[in-house]
Amino acid sequence: MTDTMDYPDVIIVGGGPAGYAAAVYAARASLRVLVVEQGMPGGQIATTDEVENYPAIAKISGAELGQRFQEHAEALGATTCYAMVTEIRREDDGTFTVVTDQDELKAPSLIVATGATPRTVGFEGEDTYRGRGVSYCATCDGMFYRGKKVFVIGGGNAACEEAMFLTNFASEVVVVVRRDQFRAPKGVVDRMLANPKISVKYATSVVKAEGGSLLGHVTFRNNATGETYEEDYPEGSFGIFVFAGTKPETDLIADLVDLGPDGGVLTDENMATKTPGLFCAGDVRTKALRQVITAAADGAIAGNAAYQYVSAR
Ligand SMILES: Cc1cc2nc3c(=O)[nH]c(=O)nc-3n(C[C@H](O)[C@H](O)[C@H](O)COP(=O)(O)OP(=O)(O)OC[C@H]3O[C@@H](n4cnc5c(N)ncnc54)[C@H](O)[C@@H]3O)c2cc1C
Fold first, then answer.
1. Which residue, 144, 205, 212, 143, is CA-closest to 180?
2. What would the pLDDT profile of 92-117 be if each residue is shown by its tens digit?
3. Taking 80 as the threshold, does the pLDDT of residue 24 lie above it?
4. Pairing between strand 109-112 and 278-280?
5. pLDDT tens-digit profile of 208-228?
6. 4 CA distance to ligand 1 centroid (A)?
7. Whole-model pTM above 0.90?
8. Do 191 and 161 contact (CB within 8 A), yes or no?
9. From the CA of 282, how far away is ligand 1's center (Å)?
10. Active site residue ranges
11. Ligand 1, from 99, 267, 292, 298: best to mutate by most atoms within 8 Å of Cβ?
12. DSSP code per residue over 43-85
């Protein structure tokens, strides 16, 4: 653990874009800020090669962008504690106890920015080729498939909407649906099926994706007959987008917040939850667009709101 503070004004759980943006704003407002991060600082974005949609930075690696978020906050006085938070309690006096796998921390205000995790579907090669042909975000990675073929896995609303979005780049979009019908509303499905670039493999699952450094080979299973078959393509000529839902990481604060329809935390426009002193920012919130820019914006508001809260105590 790097030097932690005995009693910071605000503890921020999660060192991704939302957490460090909150740290920048809270530290500049002269709060003592402690960020608790369980892994590599930078959050999800640190796992991707290229980011091309963070305004004012035309192109940057995800790892560098994540590192810059951390460096900026620490240059302003925020401290990072490398530990996993295992429990969060609000005490009778209104302060928060944050239990980690190493220590117990206390502060009068808390910002939870634990992010969200895209749900995986579990085919062989899904982990190995994540970021090298397997993607969970059309807004992030669609551009990289200009003129290429893409497979979209999923039968819900997100899969249909994202399949249509991907036709802006891809030469061909094949939607792979586990069952013999979509779960998405009929209007959305009809609109998608009317798109000449989109075709559907019904009652089908991807069971394996392979290749060299990039994908070159997919194995499908026909779920009606159990039969499997393979398709080969030149390496790097196609991608697989998985849209099986997103899980906001809310478990630590389940009894302190209300959740929205997507499982994310409901806040007001100041990022305040129903528990006084507890703010949430970034992908952990209920929201329509989970991106670095929206996470950072949430973080800025939460950092400022924590300052207002602590000053008024
Ligand atoms: C492969 C990929 C590519 C992407 N590409 C883009 C892109 O090009 N452009 C774009 O704008 N967005 C992109 N995104 C989305 C973007 O990364 C997220 O929207 C953004 O990172 C959300 O920031 P966040 O701070 O809310 O959460 P996260 O980035 O998820 O950060 C949460 C942090 O909290 C930590 N944490 C969680 N639980 C605990 C705990 N119990 N104790 C301690 N720490 C904890 C995690 O380790 C993590 O570091 C991409 C996402 C992925 C997965």
1. 205
2. 999 999 999 999 999 999 999 999 99
3. yes
4. parallel
5. 999 999 999 999 999 999 999
6. 23
7. no
8. no
9. 8
10. 137, 140-141
11. 292
12. GGGGG-S-B--BTTBSSB-HHHHHHHHHHHHHHTT-EEEE--E
